[in-house]
Amino acid sequence: MSPAFQVHIIGAGLAGSEAAWQLAEAGYRVRLSEMRPERMTPAHQTAHAAEMVCSNSFKSDDPSSATGILKAELRRLDSLILECAEATRVPAGNSLAVDREAFAERVTSKLKRNPNITWHEGEERAPDLAVPTLIATGPLTAEPLADWLSAICGGDRLFFYDAIAPIVERDSIDMDIAFRASRYDKGGADFINCPLTVEDYERFMDALLTAERADLHDFDTPYFEACLPIEVMADRGRETLRHGPMKPVGLDDPRTGRWPQAVVQLRQDTLAGDHYNLVGFQTRLKWGAQKEVFRLIPGLQNAEFVRFGSIHRNTYVHAPKVLDATLAVKSVPNLWIAGQLSGVEGYLESAAGGLAAATSIQRALLGRAPAPLPRESMLGALLHYLANASVKDFGPTNAMLGLLPELPEGLLDHRALKRAGGARGLKQAKGLAYRERALAALEAHLSNLGVEA
């Protein structure tokens, strides 16, 4: 690779796109390599940067939630991904969801217009580490590069199965049966809800549990618990779905004034509102079975499918062995790993990892010592988990409040909060306290780095 480039980033997913933007905006010349469209993955459909495959959601905007805290940190750090997401958002209650195509096009346009970024189309198999290199090829990393990475990192490479939810045409949903609402009316009537009676639910469960499933080639490979196929959840018990993606709480059926036995929610997938995805309905059912089973859902009896659900294998490294808390590979100079390949799960978390890796690479280019983000910040806690999790039990994780250090004893009056707002009030107060501490810790960290300049 030409020495004219100061940084090489492989993979133009959410992590790679964020990292390339941050380094380019800081004045560094970046080569951004993406194998698509020369070589496509089993799940991607375009050659755009930051294409969202499994879902169109960046999760909750609740300021007291883990993702709400992480978004606040990313806004403070001028995240490209978050800016593009907010510019292309679609109605989704209290969550941030986007028009996938508009979002990816906006990210791609910004990257390709940046004079410090050179876009290279083509597969990378064994990168030259003469310059700082970030691998952010995601969970569908091509085998040659994955094999090289496994060898150079000591042979530790893991994987799990992930699934994609189907998408249907809006006009094929029967709105005489389905109704618009958000749970507990939070965020407006942003979801389409298909209500099921007891009889509907039992009929659906019978069909789901006996439907034909796609074969898996690696039978010992686990699923990611936060993104289980709906039929795998159903295998755990007939009531599992009613307490998971089909829970009816907070959704009054306008025809009865009561909560139904179960609900299937559909979330807008495009700005035009012509496509909706089935929330939480990731699946490995064969396509013909999906059509038969999902058309048993009241309101979807005539559903036209824009895309069927599918399943694919996700690759990630054994982070506690391989990475430090700045996403640098401990045993290999000039190499960083970010995004889902590093062991985080989720679009927001992947973008955040790309931003953190860019900061780490910039410090290396300046000849400065690594400076991990504070554990009190959500991003810092996530990266600390990757570097320090149990080697034996390591698995991918989302941003969670449980990753943060406990709040100081006595900071919150638990009894008073429970009296005022119950368990939910206490949970929200704790989340807001975590948020305040996280942002203060991040601000102090940035201030200290500014002193070094």
Fold and architecture overview:
- This protein is α/β, with parallel strands linked by helices.
- The chain has 2 domains: 7-162 and 314-405, FAD/NAD(P)-binding domain (3-Layer(bba) Sandwich), CATH 3.50.50; 166-308, Elongation Factor Tu (Ef-tu), domain 3, CATH 2.40.30.260.
- Helices cover 34% and strands 16% of the residues.
- It has 12 helices and 16 strands.
- The protein has helices spanning 14-25, 66-76, 80-87, 100-113, 143-152, 198-210, 230-235, 287-294, 319-322, 347-365, 378-388, 414-452, and strands at 7-10, 30-34, 57-60, 89-90, 95-98, 117-121, 133-135, 157-164, 167-169, 179-181, 191-196, 262-268, 275-278, 305-307, 310-317, 335-337.
- The strands form 4 sheets. It has a 6-stranded antiparallel β-sheet with strand order 10-11-12-13-9-14.
- Strand 4 (89-90) and strand 5 (95-98) form a beta hairpin.
- Helix 2 runs parallel beside helix 10.
- The radius of gyration is 22 Å and the shape is globular.
- The two termini are 30 Å apart.
- The mean pLDDT is 91.
